[in-house]
Write a structure and sequence with these properties.
200 residues, alpha+beta, two-stranded antiparallel ribbon, two-stranded antiparallel sheet, 7 helices, globular
């Protein structure tokens, strides 16, 4: 079944990159016109079995924003978020370059959102089950509230996904993500500052 999941990931990633090419160009142009700096943001995350990899996103902060103010802690209405970046984050369009990560086998379309090394270092034995599968662009915790959930709630839901995984569950998650993406549900956390590294 895992081979079927990988084949599905490959097909969707290839098709998505081909179809979304024009949108990528429009987003890239909007980012460049909105603020100086690179189009993409790259960051090391922890993947399956604790292996680090480089995640790709469209830049949503001012250039070097992750080194300013509170660093990787993102405050609500943070001034480092650009005008275009706010739109990209609300619709999760900044995550689209991760289709390249899916193509390379570092990520899956569905799975727990990948986190930073210092976050993984805090996991207990139960929470480390998140690392048994590839991280995903969209996950079980993602469709249950995105940033409206607390961090412990997200981890608990991700562990549930890992222990109950099936292709049917992946299809359910993908289907339920569509209206959430269109509405931009849960883009801001009501629980206080959030990590720049997370948009789930």
């Amino acid at each position: 079944m895992r081979h079927v999941k990988r084949a599905f990931d490959l097909c969707v990633a290839l098709l998505g990159l081909a179809i979304l090419g024009p949108l990528f160009l429009v987003i890239a142009l909007a980012i460049k016109l909105d603020s100086p700096g690179p189009v993409f943001f790259h960051q090391e995350r922890i993947g399956q079995h604790g292996r680090p990899f480089r995640i790709h996103k469209f830049r949503t902060l001012v250039a070097g924003g992750e080194h300013m103010r509170a660093g990787y802690v993102l405050e609500r209405n943070d001034p480092r978020i650009t005008g275009v970046g706010a739109i990209l984050r609300r619709l999760a369009l900044d995550e689209l370059p991760q289709l390249v990560n899916v193509l390379k086998g570092e990520m899956s379309l569905v799975g727990p959102r990948p986190t930073l090394a210092y976050q993984v270092a805090r996991y207990d034995d139960s929470q480390r089950q998140r690392l048994l599968v590839k991280p995903g662009m969209i996950g079980w915790a993602w469709i249950h509230g995105r940033k409206e959930l607390t961090w412990p709630q997200r981890i608990e839901l991700d562990v549930w996904y890992v222990t109950h995984w099936s292709l049917w569950l992946d299809m359910k998650i993908l289907w339920r993500s569509i209206p959430l993406l269109l509405r931009g549900t849960g883009v801001e956390s009501p629980h206080g500052p959030d990590e720049i590294s997370r948009l789930d």
